[in-house]
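Please, structure for the following, as tokens.
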Amino acid sequence: MRRKATVALVAIMVVFSLAGMAFAMHLITGEVIMAHPSTRILIIDAQGREVTFSVVEDAAMVLADLQSATKVVVSYEADGKLTAQSATKG
């Protein structure tokens, strides 16, 4: 019985660690094309490539301070769509 519980616990830990790798945080640097606080959308130009993020509610306040052509560093998750966790001037 104890062995089954240990095996189950190890299996659960493996699943959670694999899920963590799938939703790892990424960083990208670029220039703001558009920052729209009410819809929580951020679009940047990253080395000539337009990248669109939806922004988590906690980070949406920052969007009001971002002007077009401002250099930013965006911390995001790629989980089927790009979700920005933060955007800082840089």
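Confidence is low (pLDDT under 50) at residues 5-11, 17-21. The domain at 25-89 is CATH 2.40.50.140 (OB fold (Dihydrolipoamide Acetyltransferase, E2P)).
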